[in-house]
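Per reviewer request, we include the raw input and output of the structure prediction for the construct analysed in the revised manuscript.
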Amino acid sequence: MKILIHSNAPWAPTGYGQQTGLFAERFQRLGHDVAISATWGLHGAQLEWHGMRVYPSDDSWGNRTLGAVAAHFGDGDPVLVLTLGDVWVFTAPSFAELNVAAWTPVDHAPAPPKVAAFFHRTGATPIAMSRFGERMLRQEGLEPLYAPHAVDCSVFRPLDRAECRDHLGLPQDAFVVGMVAANKGWAPPRKAFGQVFAAVGELCREHDDAWLYVHAECTGVHGGVNLMELARACKIPPDRIKLTNPAALELGVGQERMAAIFSAFDVLANPSYGEGFGVPIIEAQACGTPVIVSDVTAMPELCGAGWIVETEPWWDCTQGAFFGQPLISSVHGALQRAYNARGDQQLRDQARTFAVAYDAERVLEEFWAPVLERLDPSRPERELPAPEVHTSKAAA
């Protein structure tokens, strides 16, 4: 089958780019002919990446050129267009004219009207990346398939913490709270920087060995939050907060380096307002680091070792659905419990064991291989088993 992945370029330092890179090669290994239509990360010319053609972005999410790209790649053969990203940005008529399957995030409850409308308008096949998303799409009268996001657990693995802390300039005896998050948006700041920083500020006043490490752009230049101003407002001591070098962020931080960053943490703080999946939650646990997440959207089902914080509904008028705003008191309580559990090797082993279920090889075999079989337009007409319906609550 010819598969055109329509998402960020596979080398892009984004969650979508990472997933494109993980699975494009693996789909090839299953015997499919794969190309990539970049929505971001390549302009002006086609390139070849690992034997696959990568088409450049048209700066319109493919709304102007996706039909032409699919026709060029297909060269007369049927093509499955597999989108990865928010579907409400895809507005062109070509999305209804092509054979489209959309691997889509759902990070609100209920599914935003614009998300459901895309599927009803185009007839595209929805692929949920979380069990939460699967439930929300079913509530809109859709029949989604399911394939979760994944990590390469041969890269994201527990590394020597002492060495990792030396490389990052962190004290060996510190209790390190980590954040790995895109600093984009302020209404709300979806990654809950304000709540985490306020809770960490309180933790620092209670424990003089508490530190915060932030892997994020710190000035808010991309429409986010000025994190240094926020740290001052939350009274986090300036000598106990450390940020990834801004130049390194611009140039891209490799996955081996990210594994070292996660391995240096005592806990990852990821109590977002909403997550379509939440790749850092699994990456951290793959490195043996427990996590703090919110009790909404995909996050509870991804918490194999850690703590789940309470939220209150936050109406997102731009999407017509609810986020969950984490409570500072609940985030602080989770940080206290993480502080008391520091050095718990059993908890760290539990994190790693849980994350291995999301290893890319396992996800390919258990989920993507049958999903692609169902989507293959050239397969013989025969009955395939219906996708399994999950109605139970996500595992906490």
